[in-house]
Every structure is written in C-alpha cells, then in structure tokens.
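Incident log, support desk, overnight shift.

02:14 A customer reports that sequence design results differ from what the structure should imply. Their input is reproduced verbatim below. On-call engineer (initials T.W.) acknowledged and began investigating.
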C-alpha cells in the first residue's frame, strides 16, 4: 500500500503512515461515524498557498472541508485555554503533517 500523503510504501494494516503520520484509508471502514462521503480526505498536507504560519490550519481546513477562519479561531482559543496543547500541538502538527509537494515533483492528482 502506498501512502497518499508522502508516497512511501507502508504496511497494509497501518492506519497511519509511520513516515509522515497521515491517516491511511485502508480496507477497514471508518472508525468514527463521520463519513464525509462525497469528498474523501485527499491526505492531510500543508498547502503552500494560504498558509499563515506553517499551513497546519490551512491543511486541516482543506483536508476536512472546514472553514479556515474557524480552524484558526479554534486553534487560537485552544492555545489560550490550554496553552500546552497549542504550544506543543502546533509544532507537532508542523512536523508530522507533510508539506504539499512542489508542483511537478509528483504526477498530477485530482485537485
Ligand atoms: Zn506518508
């Protein structure tokens, strides 16, 4: 099985890519009841456009179809209410979520 986010080969049983941490859609059904259906998550990446700091919020909003302003407001609120979560969580997401590949480095996918 190939990780859609970073393109590395990973175990078929893996739910998350060990290299980039992206969720992998395996043969098993969705764990949570939330199935977006029409718009499957393409793989969480940090887009090169529209990022404010590292693109974590932009990536989340794109991957899950959330409003980017809402994602940023929630991120700020979480950081204010629970500083360790934001202070540690954002850099962790920064490291774990792969950056969007440069155009031309991979075959074009559905955008
Ligand atoms: Zn990966």
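02:41 Re-run completed on a clean worker. Output:
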């Amino acid at each position: 099985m190939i990780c859609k986010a970073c393109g590395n080969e990973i175990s078929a049983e893996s739910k998350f890519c060990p290299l980039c941490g992206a969720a992998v859609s395996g043969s098993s059904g969705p764990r949570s009841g939330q199935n977006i259906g029409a718009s499957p998550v393409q793989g969480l990446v940090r887009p090169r456009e529209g990022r404010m700091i590292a693109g974590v919020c932009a990536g989340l909003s794109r991957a899950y179809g959330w409003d980017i302003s809402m994602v940023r407001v929630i991120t700020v609120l979480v950081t204010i209410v629970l500083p360790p979560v934001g202070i540690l969580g954002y850099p962790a997401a920064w490291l774990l979520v792969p950056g969007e590949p440069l155009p031309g480095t991979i075959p074009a996918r559905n955008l």
